[in-house]
C-alpha cells in the first residue's frame, strides 16, 4: 500500500515468494552436498557448514596458502589471481583460465582444479619460468602484485598454444602494480614463448606434476653408487 509514493507495507507477490523458496532450496542443496576441489594437486572436501558467501581466496588463506594476495576484494586489482581448470557443462571440454579468487564463491568450485602461486613454483622446489623471467627483468619490487601477475600470465599460457605481445598486454590489463611500473613486467612476460613453457613442463615430475626436486635422480645415483661400491 502506498501513500504519496511512500511504501508503508510490502506484500511479496506469489511469484517472488516462489523464487525465494527455490533459491533457498538450491542453497540448501549446495550446502548439503559435498563440494570437493583440488588445490595444487591436493584434494579438499569443503565443510558442509561453510557459508555460501565464502570466497575461494578465503578458503586458500584458511589452508595457509597465503601467496594469493588480496587488495580490493572486488575483482579490480588482480592480486588474488589463481588458475582454475574445470569441465564445461555444455561442451564437456576441460577449460583452464586465470580467475579472480576473490570473486569465486567456494561452493561453486566443485570439481575444480586450482593452481596457486605455491603450486607453480617456490624456493624449495624450484621456480617456474614465468617467475624466473619476472625476476630477471626486474619486474618486481615489493612483490605484492607479483603472484597475481605470474598466475595471470600462467593462465594465458594454459588457455592458448601461442600468444602475441599485444595479447600479453591485453591479458594483463586487470592486474595493478603500485610500485614497479608496467614496462619491466610486460617486457618480462612478452619474452616468454610457448617453447619456454613446454621446456618448463619437461622439468616437472611426470608422476606428481610438481617441479622436479631431483630426488629420483639422486636415488638412481645412489643405486649406481652402491653398485659401483659392491664391484
Ligand atoms: S583482490 Fe583485487 S581482484 Fe581480487
Ligand atoms: S611490485 Fe609492488 S605492487 Fe607490484
TrEMBL record:
Domain 2Fe-2S ferredoxin-type: 33-120
UniProt GO molecular function: 2 iron, 2 sulfur cluster binding; iron ion binding; oxidoreductase activity
Keyword check for Oxidoreductase: yes
Pfam families on file: Fer2, Fer2_2
InterPro entries: 2Fe-2S-bd, 2Fe-2S-bd_dom_sf, 2Fe-2S_ferredoxin-like_sf, 2Fe-2S_ferredoxin-type, 2Fe2S_fd_BS, Ald_Oxase/xanthine_DH-like, Beta-grasp_dom_sf
UniProt keyword annotations, A-Z: 2Fe-2S, Iron, Iron-sulfur, Metal-binding, Oxidoreductase
Name recorded for this polypeptide: 2Fe-2S ferredoxin-type domain-containing protein
Organism: Penaeus vannamei (Whiteleg shrimp)
Phylogenetic placement of the source organism: Eukaryota, Metazoa, Ecdysozoa, Arthropoda, Crustacea
